């Protein structure tokens, strides 16, 4: 069983490292995640979970572990693909469950393009911020990633 995530501010994007095979790649990802973002160069607010106990954790295991985290619409995984591929795109995973939806049709609409997509580190903050304030939905970002030739959400 994975530990509870503690100490995250509600405005921090939650990034969980699940691959520990390339420390250099992780340092690149972590450095990119703290860079100012957006057209106004907003300060990056991110909570990094960097503990080998999460090594090899699946999407479902991470989702189960973060269920108790309040105000969390999306969690980002620095997984094997993130560490081995260029660009170093993280896996954005919605925390939405069927129970939170009006009905099956609503749930299907909201996950039409899947419950996960890849995003560049710069996109992490756009996704998190927009979902947090309800400006855009997960399905919109997933659709943009779906339309990208490499399947990656890049930026607004």
TrEMBL record:
InterPro entries: DUF6924 (IPR053832). Pfam families: DUF6924 (PF21962). Residues 13-155 form the DUF6924 domain. It comes from the Bacteria. This is DUF6924 domain-containing protein.
């Amino acid at each position: 069983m994975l530990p509870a995530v503690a100490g995250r501010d509600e405005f921090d994007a939650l990034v969980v490292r699940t691959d520990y095979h390339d420390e250099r790649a992780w340092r690149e990802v972590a450095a990119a995640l703290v860079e100012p973002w957006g057209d106004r160069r907003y300060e990056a607010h991110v909570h990094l979970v960097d503990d080998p106990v999460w090594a090899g954790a699946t999407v479902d295991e991470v989702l189960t572990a973060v269920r108790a985290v309040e105000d969390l619409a999306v969690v980002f995984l620095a997984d094997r693909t993130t560490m081995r591929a260029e660009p170093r795109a993280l896996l954005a995973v919605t925390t939405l469950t069927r129970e939170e939806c009006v009905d099956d049709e609503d749930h299907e609409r909201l996950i039409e393009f899947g419950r996960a997509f890849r995003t560049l580190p710069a996109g992490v903050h756009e996704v998190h911020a927009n979902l947090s304030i309800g400006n855009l939905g997960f399905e919109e970002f997933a659709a943009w990633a779906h339309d990208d030739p490499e399947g990656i959400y890049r930026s607004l």
